[in-house]
Amino acid sequence: MALMIIQLLVVLAALYIGSRYGSLALGAISGIGLAILVFGFGMKPGEPPTDVIYIIIAAVTCAGVLQASGGMDWLIQLAEKLLRRHPDRITFLAPLCTFFLTVLVGTGHVVYTLMPIIVDIAIKKDIRPERPCAVASVASQVGITCSPIAAAVVAFVTISNANGYGVTIPQVLMVTLPACIIGIIMAANASYKRGKDLKDDPEYQKRIEDPKVHKYIYGKESTTLDKVIDNKAKLAVYIFLAAIVCIVGLAFCQMLLSKDALARLPKMNIAIQIIMLSATAFMIMFCKVDLKNAVSGSVWKSGMVAVVAIYGIAWLANTYFNNYLEEMKMMLSDVVSQYPWSIAFVFFLVSVLINSQGAVVVAMLPLAYSLGIPGPVLLGVMPSVYGYFFIPNYPSDIATVNFDRTGTTVIGKYLLNHSFMKPGLISVGVSTIVGYLITCVLFPGYFAAL
Length: 450
Known about the structure:
Helix content: over 70%
Largest sheet: none
Order of helices and strands: HHHHHHHHHHHHHHHHHHHHHHH
Number of strands: 0
Strand content: under 5%
């Protein structure tokens, strides 16, 4: 037992040190932890998560080419038109916009372009920017468990199928989409009157008495409406959306086909890679994409960083848990047999440490299945894999604080009293409960036996 704890501390130390340096370092420093376990303690190395990594590479490359084509600018422009048409509802519409953008492109980093626009609209309507900004940043990450091309969703389906739970992408989205939308709406509702309006905030009013501060806050305007979107950018969006429709449509077909027919089709993880790479090729050929912009864009860069992070983290966790699988079963079997939903707390806590929903799924889902937790339960609590808002060191949260010129969106003096805590806890908590209830309705047979 002492050796098991020491080795767990090695894993946690690698994750903690890696998180201090950022996402790329998480994967690399996990390699040091893996080396200590394998060469220092003689552990048998686990399997690296190659299937999930290949899918991420294909999806991120496709999304990166979409960004380079100007197609993502068109999506942002459409979102801005909606927000400026209904500025009074910015606290509800902003998070829904960031959520659905993430659902479409599979990454929450699209929020960087939209967040300055959200701030600009809020300031002009004298709405405290913290209200829409904090929940919009949270919503941009919540959308990952609802995207058919996101690593977390694809990994959940791939690992579940390998463990005997034949779930498809549409079935996952049937649970996560409504659950997460309800969670976001509840978080936005809690943020609607959060803090004082700008005109009633004495500290803010005192700040803008300084002409320089007033000019800094009110003299800027962020917009994408002046950008000219050409037809080739729009064509790229249509190609990208067609690829997503093909992926979801193929998954629906797999739900309806017989086992013999399914055997003749490629597995879903292979199909996604083929479709995404084909869509990338069509965009390159027909939309005149500058590939230098594709590989230098924020989407491709952040996606490749995620690949390294998931590679190292998941391999490290897989090595540790595989070597102590029987011990884990003995320790946790009583708890998970009585309260299988309690695995949600484990998912959440691991996410706080490793800042990646895909990595949480890849690292922890095999362990959850090995403990005997039914697939529908794990599907129901899937929204709980997002917990990295808890410590506000994620790039989207830090960027949001910097984008808010009024200074109302903050990281508090005591670190945890920050603007993202309340909407994050409400959104994830409500989404997880609703997701669990949805699976109770969709799969009553599993829960009757619990």
